[in-house]
Amino acid sequence: MRPKLTKTNTPNLFQAEDGSFWGRVKVSGRTSLRKLNAPAKRAAVHELRSWIATIKPTAKCIPKSKRETWQTATGIATSLVMRRPGIAPRTVAYYAQMEKIVANVLPEGTPAARLTAAACRSWWEDVAGRFSPVRANSILGLLRKVINRLVERGELAADPTAGFQRMRVSETRRTLPTSAQFHSILEAMGETPSRIMAEFMAYSGTRISEARTLTWDDVEFHEDGATITISTTKVRGGAQRFRRLPASPPLLDVLKRMVQQWPEGKRPRGPLFHIQTPRTALERAVRKTNSPHLRIHDLRHLFATRCIEAGVDIPTVSRWLGHSDGGALAMKTYGHLRDDHSRSQAARVTF
User: 0.85 cut: is pTM over it?
Assistant: First the structure.
């Protein structure tokens, strides 16, 4: 009786419910299955390679007219990823960039069956030296998608990158300004349109692209304050999403100051901001006050961090930020607290 097998992250390697490892490979339309004697995965991978080598599923099993060049194989595998339902346009563009890098593993026109571990190793060393760990790992992931498809087709015997180690990604530690430092930065900016936009973004958590598209029709004043309807600029599957953000006291104060700039009795209309970005003024103020480096997108991080420090729960912060994952990304990205706040909270713990 054939055991129930579960795929592992190694092509052609499966694991049964009893923990044993099995090899399964398709050659010329016929599937071969074999139980491996190795008790551990690493040993099973080596045994699997030896077994596959005896079967020799190479490009000779495929008609010459149907064999693919490496560039063709890369393009097909990448297009399959790009056609996934709901994939964002920015992600499609990201994969298009990675496709060009993966296509350089072998010279133009080289048959995909000629891919070797040596060629992959040389390419991986170059990629690991040129790109950040996160991006390099993404590129390696696309390379393995191309290889997995070729293994399933029978053009490659096994994955020549099976022994490659992904680059270690170190946790990025953001240094955000304290409350006093941030207000010093604002003072250094003066009462300018750049300051107003920077304050708005810091108190609302909006992305720069979202702030640019906001109009006064998106702002609803009421007895309890104000609510802002924000159209997210990160759209999946072509469906536009909106979120409603209740204005906190600092944000409400900014909105009132903006209204006061209009002639008395005239209702504000049109876009909230008439500048594209406060970046230049913000960078100048940061240098002037000798404050920690502060990017435009850091204003969004500052908003999330201040909300969490104030006791707002992660799911609520996630909704305010426009995330649609129930708080998973917010927990991973913003679950940290500044050192001084963390120490003050630790002092409250008793047994």
Answer: no
